[in-house]
Amino acid sequence: MIEINSLDHNGRGISRLNEKIVFVNNALPNEIVEIKILKDNKRFIEADVDRYIKKSDIRIDSPCPYFEVCGGCDIMHLSYENQLKFKEDKIKNIVDRYLKLNIKINKIVKCDNYLNYRNKVTFQVNQDIGFFKKNTYDIVNIDKCLISDNKINEAIKYLKKLDLKNIKNITCRVGLNELMIIIDTTNKNLNIDILKEIADSIYLKINKEYIHVFGNKNIYKMLNDYKFIISPDSFFQINLNTCLKLYNKVKEYVGSNKQVLDLYCGTGSIGIFVSKNNNILGIELNEDAIKDANQNKKINNLDNINFICGDSGKKIHNLNFNPDVIIVDPPRSGLNKETINNILKFKTKEIVYVSCDPMTMVRDLNILKEQYNIIEITPFDMFPNTKHVECVTYLKRK
Ligand SMILES: C[S@@+](CC[C@H](N)C(=O)[O-])C[C@H]1O[C@@H](n2cnc3c(N)ncnc32)[C@H](O)[C@@H]1O
User: Fold this and answer.
1) N or C, fewer C-beta in 10 Å, the chain?
2) Pocket around ligand 1: residues whose beta carbon is below 6 Å from it?
3) How many domains does the structure of the chain reveal?
4) 270 near 244, Cβ under 8 Å?
5) CA of 356, closest atom in ligand 1
6) What are the tens digits of pLDDT across the range 38-78?
7) What range does the domain containing 36 cover?
């Protein structure tokens, strides 16, 4: 029997047993639990709860029937207010511990719809459809996912009628009330007729190649007055409510009459969003995303934005562009040393760092802080019910 003291960054309860740290799934501070040990390493133990002796006052019954087994959400046993507090504390802890600077951390910006916010979901498939169980490749079959857009939930019963034998996974993306379905399969002749009742666009993904088999080739999203094209493989923020708040924050920092370098630009969405009265150059590795970015430039009638396809860190070396502001929005792995060194060569007045992983963010800020003051960090709840937090950090050259 152990007592839980606090939560780790993944939302697991932390306790101690025989000089070792214990991480307990689905356990909250002040709870007293009996545990079932899953892994016993030299320095720490990982465990599930076998029996709750005393439950926390802040525990709620998760609204999702799959929460305890499904690997999708981590903190659905907390009310939304307590989820926000967990995320704020997580960022404060990481900054205190790894940056060791007294930095202004703003209140977390919440999502207005903490359920049904996901506009893109990938379902795993075996004989049925669902998500991977926590820490395994076993699948939890589901009929509904509470954090996904209702249009995706409506699609599940149709997806279940497909011949699932040779299907690895199925991705659903929602645009302006349009549904795109992408089926990763080895069956070229898969009968998809049943999906025509609900889908606006259908692709088969065979050996990494996207084959358009029904409806429109693309779907669209709007952010303020800007329209964005979504193709099957391109990155687009999955939570539009929080995305809009985050992009507005970036826009506030960028201001106007600036030369803006938008690194890791995806389909150009941040650059386009901040483009009014500015000149933008976006760089992105994924060729399809760059094709979409150029389409986005065209459909929004913009002539003050250009895109380059390639590695952001390498392409900025010897670039014929003199930025006033650099925006970076890297994947979870963050920036690498070469990229940071090349960014520092520009000596720009300001950097706006958008991050989906606070650990790699503070690692990078630790290098950037030698030449830049870290003015403030704002956490955003882009992924309610999960442990993830998005942050925007504003830096000014010393
Ligand atoms: C977190 S997304 C951000 C996309 C975009 N800023 C947005 O808000 O939609 C990260 C992007 O970085 C791209 N990427 C990954 N590694 C890269 C690299 N080395 N150079 C340039 N882009 C890269 C990915 O393809 C992805 O589009």
Assistant:
1) C
2) 235-237, 264-266, 269-270, 283-286, 289, 311-312, 329-331, 356
3) 3
4) no
5) 1
6) 999 989 999 999 999 999 999 999 999 999 999 999 999 99
7) 2-59
